[in-house]
Amino acid sequence: MTIKAIQEEIIDEFSMFDDWMQRYEYMIELGKSLPLIEEQYKTDDNLIKGCQSKVWVHAELDKDKLVFTADSDAIITKGIIAILVRAFSNQKPQDIIDADVEFIDEIGLKEHLSPTRANGLVSMIKQLKLYAVAYQTQLK
After folding, report:
1. Do residues 27 and 107 touch, judged by C-beta distance below 8 A?
2. Is the pLDDT confidence value at 3 over 90?
3. Which of 12, 28, 62, 89 is the most buried (most CB within 10 A)?
4. How buried is residue 80: exposed, middle or buried, by Cβ count under 10 Å (0-12/13-18/19+)?
5. Active site residue 75
């Protein structure tokens, strides 16, 4: 499934909810289903800078696709990173680099987050793309 198709699926899922309380609950559920990072990767090197909560992300290459695992110490933040991992995991690094993240705006996520969480969201996206750039250079 392409990144765009996954993003469309996420938009459809969020559009089923009438209000933001339901969407937050859904994000918390998504966070619970997040492929968790192994304890050995919960290091300062894998912490995302710029997040109020602690968010760890680990990436590894499986053949030619990047696989992300993550965790957070905050339930909403865990839901946010779960959405991003779902959109970008098991994709080719170049596709991640080229992908837009307009779906975040389309589900209304940024406008319903506190300024510090919105900054954290931007930091998470930036970090996933940086991993993609690093692994893309290895594939060449």
Report:
1. no
2. yes
3. 89
4. buried
5. no
Which residues lie closer than 8 Å to 130 by C-beta, 6 or more apart? none
- In single-letter form, the type of residue at position 92 comes to K
Give DSSP secondary structure letters for 37-69: PPGGG-SGGGBPTT-SS-EEEEEEEETTEEEEE
> Count of H helices and E strands in the chain?
6, 2
| The two three-digit tokens of residue 57, written as one number | 């992300």
Given the residues 51, 66, 121, 128, select the one marked as catalytic. 51
Residue type, 39: E
Supply 133's token pair.
Answer: 């750039």
For 29-61, what is each residue's pLDDT tens digit?
999 989 889 999 999 999 998 878 999 999 999
Residue 73 per-residue DSSP state: S
pLDDT tens track for 51-104: 789 999 999 999 999 999 999 999 999 999 999 999 999 999 999 999 999 999
